[in-house]
Design a protein that fits this description.
The chain is of the alpha+beta class and about 210 residues long. Helices cover about 35% and strands about 20% of the residues. The protein contains eight helices and eight strands. A six-stranded mixed β-sheet has the order 7-6-1-3-2-8, covered by helices on one side. A two-stranded antiparallel sheet has the order 4-5.
Length: about 210
């Protein structure tokens, strides 16, 4: 390939991208069942894509069976690609917090074990700073000490997409999903923890902390 042709192909590639695609950012969260996290975050304005998967462990190309055996070190996670011009990372973090039980570090809701622990995987120092600020704001909103929150903050690690049948599970298997979510008590617990702000991305009730 000549240099001129390579340059032309590069120009065409960037011209062909959807507007703003090159500026998308990525966030990775563990918050219990990835079906639920995917469903709860994908409808936010500015979210382009949510993929269920695994991260944090030591096994390459893990399967659901391996991760659920609690031997891989992986958590069920979602990878969120979003447009920061429409959705700030700080607002995405608020939605994350209000969709988990942050005082439960042994799993989430009816799902127990290391693979269901809540974790925020940060991509860089800026995300790490915002994640910690959001934790402090969440603690204040809940009337808790920061040390009461069991959501772990970790540097991002490789993300492994889950099997195809896990993707868009709530949409593709609505009856099974809704039964699982209800029987697991996810929403009942969220309402107990967060009250009317459960599942919401509204500003924190303590102004000046993590916008």
């Amino acid at each position: 390939m000549t240099r001129a042709l390579a340059i032309l192909m590069t120009i065409w590639f960037w011209w062909a991208l959807p507007a703003g695609a090159a500026d998308l950012e990525t966030a990775v969260f563990a918050g219990g069942c990835f079906w639920c996290m995917e469903h709860d975050l994908e409808s936010l304005p500015g979210v382009v894509e949510v993929i269920s998967g695994y991260s944090g462990g030591h096994v390459d190309n893990p399967t659901y069976r391996q991760v659920s055996s609690e031997t891989t070190g992986h958590q069920e996670v979602v990878q969120v690609r979003f447009d920061p011009a429409q959705l700030r990372y700080s607002a995405l973090l608020r939605s994350y917090w209000r969709n988990v039980d942050p005082v439960d570090g042994e799993g989430q809701f009816c799902d127990r074990g290391d693979s269901y622990r809540p974790v925020i995987f940060t991509a860089d120092a800026a995300q790490a700073h915002e994640a910690e600020a959001s934790a402090q704001a969440a603690a204040l909103e809940l009337g808790r000490r920061r040390s009461d929150l069991m959501v772990e903050m970790r540097n991002g690690e490789r993300f492994w997409p889950a099997e195809d049948y896990h993707q868009n599970y709530a949409e593709n298997n609505a009856v099974k999903y809704n039964f699982y979510r209800f029987s697991c008590g996810r929403d009942r617990r969220l309402d107990t923890v967060w009250g009317e702000r459960a599942r919401q991305s509204a500003a924190w009730t303590n102004p000046g902390k993590s916008e």
